Each structure stands twice: as structure tokens, then as C-alpha cells.
Amino acid sequence: MTIGAFADRGADLQLVGIEKRFPGFTAIENLNLTIPAGSFFALLGPSGCGKTTTLRLVAGLEEPTGGRILIGGADVTNQKSFQRPVNTVFQSYALFPHMTVLENVAFGLRRRKIGDPVAKAHEALLLVELDHLAHRRPQQLSGGQQQRVALARAIVNRPALLLLDEPLGALDLKLRRQMQLELKTIQEEVGLTFLHVTHDQEEAMTMADIIAVMNKGRIEQMGEPQQLYELPKTAFVANFLGQSNLFTGPVVSTTGTAIAVDVSGQKIVVPLERAHRVSGAVTIGVRPEKLTLHDVAPTYSDGRNVLGPGRVIDVSFSGVSTQYLVAVPGIGTLVVFAQNMAFGPAAHVGAEVWLSWNVNHGFGLDDDPTDAPRFEADLDTKTIAQQRRSSLITEFEEA
Amino acid sequence: MAFAAFSSTAPSATAAPSTDPVARRRSPVALFLLLPGILYLVLFFLTPLVSLLLTSFQSPREFGDIGQFDYAFRWQNYVEVVTTYWPHIVRSFSYALAATFFALLISYPLAYFIGVKARKWPLLQSLMLVLVIAPFFISFLLRTLAWKQLFSDESFVVQSLKALSLLGPEAHVTGTAFSVIFGLTYNFIPFMTLPLYTTLERLDVRYLEAGNDLYASPFQVFRKITIPLSMPGIVAGTLLTFIPAAGDYINASRDFLGGTGTQMMGNVIEANFLVLQNYPSAAALSIILMTVILVIVSIYVKRSGTEELL
Ligand SMILES: Nc1ncnc2c1ncn2[C@@H]1O[C@H](COP(=O)(O)OP(=O)(O)O)[C@@H](O)[C@H]1O
Ligand SMILES: [Mg+2]
């Protein structure tokens, strides 16, 4: 892989046992990650979990305390940043203030002595719809425009691996959607490998082929977006990627296809292949949109779990769906998303309701239920995720 | 280059319509507030300048004593001083240029270390800054005299150099171009270091990282990013060194580090004013010195294009 020419295809990235310690603080511990060539990979996690540090290690701006980094099979751990076939879209943009937008974009091309840098820079600026501002200074652009210039400055180099550190954070919703599409198109057209860092779970899910959910310097779970959503492995993933209703209890019986868990006296069944643990105390869960509300006790015998009775304590209408909070004695508060199929809510505050869901929609976590501190910290990120979600919803409504 | 494009486009388009009426309105309060400054300038800058200009055209009084002159328009004074003293004029500017160059060469790495590398250790940063400023606590006359002692023929430095045959048996260090440029460089290093430090201290290292990420080697990052971004400091430091160095008459004086062959314009002006009592020549030389510095500085500031970075 030479620096002097455009990459004709993406390269895979391998992180082997990466560890990064700052004085008195371990930012990343034992990180193992393989990103296939040509994929759109999202690193998703809350603020401060080590995403930027991971990118800086890959870019060569930070030296790992331990472990190896391989790009396209070649060990680059000891390579200097400017020798690596990698470009970064920085979270802070870091556009050179003493150069025009055009010169900023052409900078990498000139360093690599690639022919016709100006024309190629114009092309890249056209791609991000900023060619008309090519002769401005970065500080004369808005935040969103600067971000697009930063994107153009990296993409124009056609690196085998493009690192994006929350590149769409400063854009308004419409532009963000547009840029998400653009990014995805560029990535697919050129077949480059994108490592996209974000704390926006929706962005990660819509754009990425593979998502790795990161928490406190460790990868909690990695997989395709749908797989991660349908079958989260830890309470953190279950709540960071969308919302979940989680219950804890001992496994009371096991059949060849399912386990039954006793949750405060009510039996809940989870399919065996959807449970990460099959004995002892386990945490199981179900997504809010999988729940159905009933105003009389349902009489299902098989194939559905039933909880109740509980009492509706909050109803909030959000357009496509309505969110109900249902307090079930001995279990806690459950969240239910119900499609607005009829006018008016299906239940009012104070109503007595039962909840049911298809057994096949439940999932069992791999977490140790006695691992109390992890749960507490997760509550915090859950609120972050919820706040983001509600702010996105209001944004949608305004747009 | 690119700077021209910048200045011609943006600010004029946006700023012009909105600010015009405000700028045009003359406020008596503003004028009143400016009054002390204007008075001060008239009294202590304009008056001596006019006096100097008038003196430079004076002609010797007929049958008068030495040092007696009448107001006239004797422009030949200028021709005379240039033909007599052109070696001193050339020497002044070449010594000042050399001193500025060496001071920059020494100060830039120093300021870079204090302002960028030492950021992690604020205590070391302050300590080094104090060390840069500390020499100011002793009069520069004394310090320059001390160097004269250090460079004198009997000094340990010169003796050792001679013992090592790095210096011929008949050679001297004081009174040479070397010692004068050395003295100028030494005396102006703090004036170079401090403005450099203030810009480098604010240098955002993320730009350097971005440069590294975009395939620029450390040297290219330095040339394409660090230097342009620290241009305001470089311009301020070189001006603060070059301007006083060109007019300096202490270092080149025979009483300090200079000799007969190293006299600069300052020395000639001093001699003409105080010894020869040839006031018109001294005044003409002063005007020439000032004009040349003004021309050089304005070209320099324009070329370096630092107006917007300042
Ligand atoms: N240079 C540094 N020195 C000490 N701690 C650092 C340094 N850089 C980052 N950290 C810490 O490492 C953690 C991860 O930071 P970062 O990778 O920037 O998080 P993210 O990008 O996921 O928000 C944070 O707690 C941060 O305070
Ligand atoms: Mg970050």
C-alpha cells in the first residue's frame, strides 16, 4: 500500500489487544476488532467511552500502550501518522485557518504529489455542495459547512480507510439525512472502508453494515444493526440501542426449546436460542413496541407471555405511536409503544391493563444480574439515549 | 498570493452597508477623548520630527563658528552624507539583518519549546519565561560591557580559542563584525522570543495533527502549518529586533563591542551631533535611517500578509 496513489479499494482494519492508558486513566482496555474491507462500520457509544481515542490510535496520532494495529494485513503500529493510508474527519474539523477552503481540500493531494490537485479538490467540493465557497476561509463558513469541508478534505484522498469522528454532529436534521445518504453512496461507490464514530444510535443503525457498541473502553457487542437490536447481549446494549423492558429472576424450568424465568411470581418464557444464559439468575427483556396492551386478562395458553395486572401511569402521544408507562406491582415500570391504529389512546391513565408479547420476541442477556454497578451506570446512558430520541422526535416534527 | 483574494471578497460585501452610517457619525466625545493622545503626539513626535527635518536642510553660517547653522534648503546635505557614510548605512542594515536572522534562529526553537512542548509542565513554562526575561533586571549597558570583558584579548575565552588554534595569535574578537552582531543578537533575543512565545502558546496542535493525517511529514507540517500560523509572532519579533538594531549605537561603539571598522549609522549620528557638532549631517542621516526603515517595514508587513492573522 503506497501513499503516492489513490486506494482502489478499502482495506480491512484489525485491532489486536489494543490498550491505551493515559496517566492515571485507562481509556481503552483489550480492544479486539476486525473491520472487513469495504464495509461501513459504526463505533457507537456514549460520550467519553473512548471512541475518539480509538480513532486517534488508528490514525497514528496516539500510540497504544499495548497491542497491534493492522491495516490491509500490514502492521502499522510503528508507522507514523503521515505514512498511514488513513484519513480522518476530525470532530473539531481542524480546518487550516490560513488557507482557503480549496487549499484545505487540496492539501493532502499536494503532499502526496497527486496530479491535478485543484481539479480534484473542486470535484470533492462539488460532492459536498460547497464548490461556490471554494475561495472563502474556513472561519467564514457556518459550522455545518465547515464539517462538509472537513469531509471533502478527507474523502478527496480516497484513503483505504476513512475515519469519521462524529462528522455529522453539527448538521441540522435535513442536511444530516442528506449527508448520511451521500456518505453511504460514496462509500459504496468507491468501496472504501469507513470507520464511523457516533453517539447517535439512529445514525449508526441507518448507515452501518456492522455496529460495535462501545462502553467504558470496551466493545460490548458487535454485529449487524438488526441483530444488535433484536438480540442485545447486555443491558447496556439493550438500552443504548433503542429502549428495552428488562426483568431479572431465576430460571425455573428448561425445555428443549425454551427457558422459563420466574419474575416476581409470574412465569416468562424465552426461546433457548435467544437466551445467552440458560441457568441461575438471568436478565431477560423485550422491546416496548413488541408489547400489546389488554384491558381484560388475556387467556393465551401458549406462545405468548402475559404480565399483569398493572396500572397505566403515563400516556404520551408522539404521532405514529403512543408511549404508555405501565406500573406492574413487584416488577416495576414497563414502557409500551403502541401504533395509533384507532383514534384516541387504547388506555387511559389509571386504567388496569395486562401486557402480552410473542414468546419469540423476548431475549435473554449475557449480563451477570448481580453486577450492580454496571446497571447503575447504564441507567445514565439510558437517559441520554432517551433524551436524544425525544429531541430527534421533536426535530422531526418541526422539520 | 491567497491573501489578496481574501481581502478583496468577504469583509467588504457584508460589512459595508451596515457600518457606514455609524462610522460617519462624528462624536464630540470621541474627539475629546482623543485629545490627550493627539497633544502628546504633536508635542513629542511631530515637533521633534519637524525640527529634525528643518535641521537636516540647514547650511553653515557664513563666518560662523563650528556648530553654527542657519535655516535654509540645502538638500546637498543628503548627497554629502550618503557619499560619505554609505558604508555605514549598508553596514547598519546588514548587521541588523544578520542579528535579526540569528535572533530568530535561536528564539524560534526556544519559544516553540516554551509555548508548545512545555504545555504539559506549566511550572517549567513559567520558569523558562522568567529566564528569558531575567536579563532585563540588569542594565543592557552592563551586560554588553560584560561581554566586552569576556571577549577581550586576555579573557579566558579568547585565550582558550588561541590555545586551540581556532583563532590566530594576532586575532581579536572585540572590534569585529562578529562581536557587534553577537552583541546585537544577544541584546534583542528577549524582544524576539516574547512575541513568538505569545503566538506559539496559542497554536492549536490539532492543526498539526490534521496536517500529519493529510500525509505531511513533520518538516512539511512545520513549513506549511506551524510557520504560517505563527507568522504574527515572527513579524512582531523581527520588527522589534530589526528596527532598534538598525539604529543601535551601543554594541558597535568602540567603548563596547565595536571598533573603527564596525561603526554603524547610530555611531555616525552620535559623533556628528555630539562631537563634530555637524547637526545638519546628523539630522539628514537620521531622516535617511527612519525613511529606509519605514520603507523596509511596510514592504515586509505587506508581503508577509499577516494583517488578518494579527
Ligand atoms: N490526552 C488524554 N489524557 C487523559 N485522558 C484522556 C486523554 N484523551 C482522552 N482522555 C480520556 O479518555 C476518555 C475517552 O475519551 P474519548 O476517546 O475522547 O471519548 P469519546 O470520543 O468516546 O467521547 C475520556 O474519559 C477522556 O477524558
Ligand atoms: Mg469524541
Describe the structure.
The complex is a heterodimer of chains A (399) and B (310). Chain A has 2 domains: 13-226, Rossmann fold (3-Layer(aba) Sandwich); 243-371, Nucleic acid-binding proteins (OB fold (Dihydrolipoamide Acetyltransferase, E2P)). In chain A, 27% of the residues lie in helices and 33% in strands. Chain A has 9 helices and 20 strands. In chain A, helix 2 crosses helix 3 and helix 2 (101-111) runs parallel beside helix 4. Chain B is mainly α and 310 residues long. Chain B has one domain: Orthogonal Bundle (MetI-like fold), CATH 1.10.3720. Chain B is built from 12 helices and 2 strands; from the N terminus they run H-H-E-E-H-H-H-H-H-H-H-H-H-H. Chain B has a two-stranded antiparallel ribbon with strand order 1-2. At the A-B interface, strand 6 and helix 2 of A face helix 1, helix 8 and helix 9 of B. The complex binds adenosine-5'-diphosphate and magnesium ion. Adenosine-5'-diphosphate binds next to strand 2 and helix 1 of chain A.
Rg over C-alpha atoms of chain B, rounded to the nearest angstrom:
24 Å
Report low-confidence residues of chain A grouped into runs of 5 or more. 371-379
Shape of chain B: globular
Q: Please name the CATH topology of the largest domain in chain A.
A: Rossmann fold
CATH architecture of chain B: Orthogonal Bundle
Between the first and last Cα atoms of chain B, what is the distance in angstroms?
Answer: 18 Å
GO molecular function (chain A): ATP binding; ATP hydrolysis activity; transmembrane transporter activity
Domain ABC transporter (chain A): 13-241
InterPro entries (chain A): AAA+_ATPase (IPR003593), ABC_SmlMolc_Importer (IPR050093), ABC_transporter-like_ATP-bd (IPR003439), ABC_transporter-like_CS (IPR017871), Mo/tungstate-bd_C_term_dom (IPR008995), P-loop_NTPase (IPR027417), Transp-assoc_OB_typ2 (IPR013611)
Keywords (chain A): ATP-binding, Nucleotide-binding, Transport
Helices, strands, pairings?
The complex is a heterodimer of chains A (399) and B (310).
Chain A: E1 13-22, E2 25-35, E3 40-44, H1 51-59, E4 66-71, E5 74-75, E6 86-89, H2 101-111, H3 117-127, H4 143-155, E7 161-165, H5 173-190, E8 193-198, H6 201-207, E9 210-215, E10 218-223, H7 225-230, H8 235-240, E11 245-254, E12 258-263, E13 266-271, E14 281-286, E15 292-294, E16 304-317, E17 321-328, E18 332-339, E19 352-358, E20 363-364, H9 372-398
Parallel strand pairs in A: 3-8, 3-9, 6-7, 7-8
Antiparallel strand pairs in A: 1-2, 1-4, 4-5, 9-10, 11-12, 11-14, 12-13, 14-20, 15-19, 16-17, 16-19, 17-18
Helix pairs in contact in A: 2-3, 2-4, 3-4
Chain B: H1 2-24, H2 28-56, E1 59-60, E2 69-70, H3 76-115, H4 122-133, H5 140-151, H6 156-163, H7 177-201, H8 205-213, H9 218-229, H10 231-247, H11 265-275, H12 279-304
Antiparallel strand pairs in B: 1-2
Helix pairs in contact in B: 2-12, 3-7, 3-10, 3-12, 7-10, 8-9, 10-12, 11-12
The structure holds adenosine-5'-diphosphate (ADP) and magnesium ion (MG).
Magnesium ion binds next to helix 1 of chain A.
